[in-house]
């Protein structure tokens, strides 16, 4: 099979398109002929060696590696103890190995999809949608009528969190974004309001939108000074979901302050959920159903051949992609 692998950390130039032996599915595994491969920021962080730094505390990766964590395609072989028939079309997540013409996935990390499903969309959004769904239905349970604040709501995970929350009946749903254009996009996704976290007094806007109470659930991806400000926007019994810190970790946090309003601070890291594969499978099925009914919308910005994975990484790192970028192993450049 053709695959994209790297044997050292660095820029996109370390990615090599080469021939590797086809993998063999083991017990509980499916062998998937990939039709579409999602490109995600964790792929880039792995390639850079970010996860191999001691301070990230997430274990790292072993080299050489075929990277990537999301595919969609056709099942061409199965291992023992599986129930999905050969010939089924599936979307799947995996810890590694997606950047290839053939990939192995654990069956519980897959969702069977209809013959007419858009595999490029599914592969492109699978990881982001899984994160959003797991945040709202596994790390916590967002209930009908509860309020939600999503930072970075114009981004991949944030935008899907807005749409999923809408399906779940949350209200109000408040998104933050950095520009007026991106805030308009957030409202178009279904948010009841979109604000800027860089404006003085933005937490007052949140309180006004929630009748002075604050939000029940908050998804944090900014960090820095915004981390501290968020507590002014969080309701009693509120759940604060920590997804990322694009501005850095900020000042040290005293955990006992959570006691004053019986609040919870919950960390999130997708690979941990591979130990609970049924939750990822549920998330993928939710995405599949939402796309089918039109409750979840999506945009594939560009499709490139698999052998242009390095270029896909360059464009994603350069913030040149509005939706998602997908690799197609079935086409040549």
TrEMBL record:
One of its GO terms (cellular component) is cytoplasm. InterPro entries: ADH-like_C (IPR013149), ADH-like_N (IPR013154), ER (IPR020843), GroES-like_sf (IPR011032), NAD(P)-bd_dom_sf (IPR036291), Quin_OxRdtase/zeta-crystal_CS (IPR002364), Zinc-ADH_QOR/CCCR (IPR051603). It is found in: Cytoplasm. SUPFAM superfamilies: GroES-like (SSF50129), NAD(P)-binding Rossmann-fold domains (SSF51735). Keywords: Acetylation, Cytoplasm, NADP, RNA-binding. It comes from the Bacteria. Residues 10-327 form the Enoyl reductase (ER) domain. The keyword Cytoplasm applies. The keyword Ribosomal protein does not apply. It holds the Pfam family ADH_zinc_N. One of its GO terms (molecular function) is oxidoreductase activity. Homotetramer. This is NADPH:quinone reductase or related Zn-dependent oxidoreductase. It comes from Mycobacterium numidiamassiliense.
């Amino acid at each position: 099979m053709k695959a994209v692998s790297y044997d050292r950390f660095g820029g996109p130039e370390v990615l090599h398109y080469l021939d590797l032996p086809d993998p063999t599915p083991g017990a509980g595994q499916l062998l998937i002929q990939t039709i579409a491969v999602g490109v995600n920021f964790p792929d880039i962080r792995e390639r850079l060696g970010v996860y191999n730094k001691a301070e990230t505390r997430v274990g790292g990766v072993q080299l050489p590696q075929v990277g990537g964590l999301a595919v969609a395609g056709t099942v061409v072989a199965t291992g023992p103890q599986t129930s999905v028939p050969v010939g089924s079309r599936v979307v799947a997540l995996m810890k590694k190995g997606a950047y290839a013409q053939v990939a192995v996935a654990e069956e519980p990390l897959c969702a069977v999809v209809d013959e007419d499903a858009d595999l490029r969309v599914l592969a492109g959004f699978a990881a982001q949608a899984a994160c959003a769904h797991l945040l709202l239905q596994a790390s916590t349970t967002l209930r009908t009528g509860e309020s939600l604040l999503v930072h970075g709501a114009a981004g991949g995970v944030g935008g899907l969190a807005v749409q999923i929350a809408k399906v779940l009946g949350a209200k109000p749903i408040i998104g933050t974004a950095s520009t007026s254009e991106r805030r308009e996009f957030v409202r178009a996704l279904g948010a009841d309001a979109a604000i800027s976290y860089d404006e003085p007094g933005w937490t007052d806007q949140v309180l006004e939108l929630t009748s002075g109470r604050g939000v029940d659930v908050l998804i944090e991806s900014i960090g820095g000074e915004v981390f501290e400000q968020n507590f002014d926007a969080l309701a009693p019994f509120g759940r604060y979901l920590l997804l990322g810190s694009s501005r850095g970790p900020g000042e040290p946090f005293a955990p006992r302050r959570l006691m004053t309003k019986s609040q919870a601070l919950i960390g999130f890291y997708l690979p941990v959920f591979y130990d609970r594969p049924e939750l990822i499978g549920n998330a993928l099925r939710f995405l599949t159903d939402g796309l089918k009914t039109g409750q979840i919308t999506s945009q594939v910005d560009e499709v490139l051949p698999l052998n242009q994975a390095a270029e896909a990484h360059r464009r994603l790192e350069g913030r040149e992609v509005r939706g998602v970028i997908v690799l197609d192993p079935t086409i040549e450049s």
